[in-house]
Amino acid sequence: MAPVTDGSTALPAAGPAVVAYAKGDLRIEEAPLAAPGPDEAVVEVAYGGICGSDLHYWLHGAAGESILKAPLVLGHEISGRVVRPAADGTGPAAGTAVAVHPATPGPGAARYPADRPNLSPGCTYLGSAARFPHTDGAFSRYVNLPARMLRALPENLDLRTAALIEPASVAWHAVARAGDVAGKTALVIGSGPIGALAVAVLKRAGAARIVAVDMHAKPLEIAAAVGADEVLAAGDADAIAAVEADVVIESSGNHHGLASAIRGAARGGTVVMVGLLPTGPQPVLISLAITRELDLKGSFRFNDEIDDVIAALADGTLHIEPVITHEYPVAEALEAFGVARNSAESGKVLLSFASDR
Ligand SMILES: [Zn+2]
Question: For residues 104-124, b (16+ Cβ closer than 10 Å) or e, as one string?
Fold first, then answer.
């Protein structure tokens, strides 16, 4: 379809879009594109990465405590091009390649650090059922997005790699939570896309030794390709304990992984927990964390780190391409979700939305 650049031109149809209806009920639908608000640009989506949360809505009808109460357009890891800029004149011009910051900080009055809007109460996120009405995501060929969410991309950055900017920002935030990692020994528990991206960010930040852990061979291959110096099987408890890492990034999201993270940390070390454990009480190896005086830190989404990621990709200091293992046209989204679910076989699985693919 020809780009829509003129306010007098009819809007394109939004579809095909990937919509989660309920547990096990994922549909690919054609949908009309609503008239954009004055602060919204129309973006032609090029690629969308399938995230763990997208998988959870499909497999369980919920992601953590965010439960589907109505059909939800999935997707928040997006790259694309502006086809119609926002009418109020804000944001990138037509034709600009963009990445998307999916968060809208909440207006809530509850106390939180002013420089950490990711912690603001009532924060919404594209493709999330955390609030009702739900916040539709961007897995559709065309989508209206607030111009303030858009980040212009340098021309030397391809849109395929750009689909990794959102999860790479999550990884960047997690590594930043650990403080200065230069010259340090780092351990990454769980080498799925977030773990592998954390390896890449640690490498760029100058970590002296990076050890990646996973249950499966494929994620460890990817971790090695983006900068891990050593890889270990998740079951090799003795070898993990022997790492004595200054910094541990826990990205497996289960309590066994968190136990490994604590065992693998050196005395006085820092464990950053970015993998989201299930809600409710979790068994944790807490006595060891106490006697080793570990700093246990949570990590949730990100803020302006997205700009650091874009700059590091543009100047060639951040290498993340090996994290992408599969690409499917949106018409084959169901198959793509099936592959993304299999962490033994896939890293990041992309959907492509361009009409000529
Ligand atoms: Zn994601």
Answer: bbbeeeeebeeeebbbbeebe
- Report which of 44, 62, 40 is spatially closest to residue 53, judged by C-alpha positions: 62
CATH, range 17-164+320-352: 3.90.180.10
pLDDT value of position 128: 96
Centroid of ligand 1 to alpha carbon of 164 (angstroms): 9
The two three-digit tokens of residue 210, written as one number = 């990076």
Domain ranges of the chain: 17-164+320-352, 172-298
CATH number attached to the domain at 172-298:
3.40.50.720
**CA of residue 69 to ligand 1 center, whole Å:** 21
Residue 288 CA, ligand 1 centroid: distance in Å: 31
Q: What is the pLDDT of residue 6?
A: 47
Q: The pTM is what?
A: 0.95
